[in-house]
Amino acid sequence: MSTRKPLIAGNWKMNLNHLEAIALVQKLAFALPAKYFDKVDVTVIPPFTDIRSVQTVIDGDKLLLTYGAQDLSEHDSGAYTGEISGAFLAKLGCTYVVVGHSERRTLHAETDEVVLAKTKAALRHGLTPIVCIGEGLEIREAGGHVDYNIAQLKGSLAGLTAEEIGKTVIAYEPVWAIGTGRVASADDAQEVCAAVRGALAEIADADTAASVRVLYGGSVNAKNVGDIVGRTDVDGALVGGASLKPDEFATLSAIA
Ligand code: PEP
Fold first, then answer.
1. Which ipTM was obtained for this model?
2. 136-194 per-position pLDDT tens digit
3. Is 191 marked active-site?
4. Domain assignment present for 2
5. Which candidate in 101, 110, 191, 248 is catalytic?
6. Dist CA 7 CA 2 (whole Å)
7. Which residue's CA is the nearest one to ligand 1's atom 3?
8. 92: buried, middle or exposed (CB in 10 Å: 19+, 13-18, 0-12)?
9. 99 and which of 118, 208, 209, 252 could share a cystine (Cβ 3.0–4.6 Å)?
């Protein structure tokens, strides 16, 4: 029996302005009473412009919900127009920051080196990086998915100490399952999450590997979450579309 507390993280992507964000968090507060937080951590990952508003609702109502950001700069300050520092996110009370989401790897050409630099920046500021990895459809169909994910994992964590790796969350998100409605089977999720844990034991140590939370992401909803999160090495979910529906997000969090 795992001692890892499941984590459900709702990635809103580029959806909801700050007023809509307030409304969603208020609905979530009703739908997900405090008692659920004994067994699951739940976080929302809004756009940068919503974070201050989300913080105000969560702090004001003393909610157990946490929040984070979808990205950060690898730099701490300076002439990086349009970038957001981890220092700013920490100051706003963020707990988590997503790094290396497949949409950033694809649309913004983020390499493992960039993801590693962002992971280090998150750790420097006391944020928990949710480090995303995941294969495309061609790799999955060719049967190369485990090797591909482990290479991405190792590249994205290269040179980190076991202590630093212990402060991360890993999210396995097959690209073909993100926003497509085509969810990986629970066996598929378990296969890669178990391989990730094995690789963490190799690059850090067995205790670290046993403590790091490994999430699955890709078309998770209230119907499929129980099966997926029920697997030994799957410690929660990174949820996109369903996190924009407060009742469904609360239901799937309660199931996890
Ligand atoms: C995501 O954006 O990380 C994600 C998993 O999206 P969806 O749940 O919509 O597939």
1. 0.97
2. 999 999 999 999 999 999 999 999 999 999 999 999 999 999 989 888 999 999 999 99
3. no
4. no
5. 101
6. 13
7. 240
8. middle
9. 118
158 in a structural domain: yes
> CB of 238 closer than 6 A to ligand 1?
yes
Residue 125 annotated as catalytic: no
CB of 46 closer than 8 Å to CB of 16? yes
Classify residue 1: in a domain, yes or no.
Answer: no
Task: Give pLDDT tens digits for 233-246.
Answer: 999 999 999 999 99
3-state secondary structure 68-104: EECCCCCCCCCCCCCCCCHHHHHHCCCCEEEECCHHH
Among 220, 248, 249, name the best residue to mutate to test ligand 1's pocket (greatest count of ligand atoms within 8 A of Cβ): 220
> Which residues span the domain enclosing 232?
7-255
Q: Is the CB of 106 under 6 A from ligand 1?
A: no
Q: Is the CB of 130 under 6 A from ligand 1?
A: no
Residue 29 lies in a domain: yes
Tell me, in angstroms, the distance from the centre of ligand 1 to residue 103's CA.
Answer: 10
Tally of structural domains, the chain? 1
Residue in the structure block whose two tokens are 């140590």: 205
CATH number at residue 125: 3.20.20.70
Ligand 1 neighbour 70 (Cβ under 6 A): no
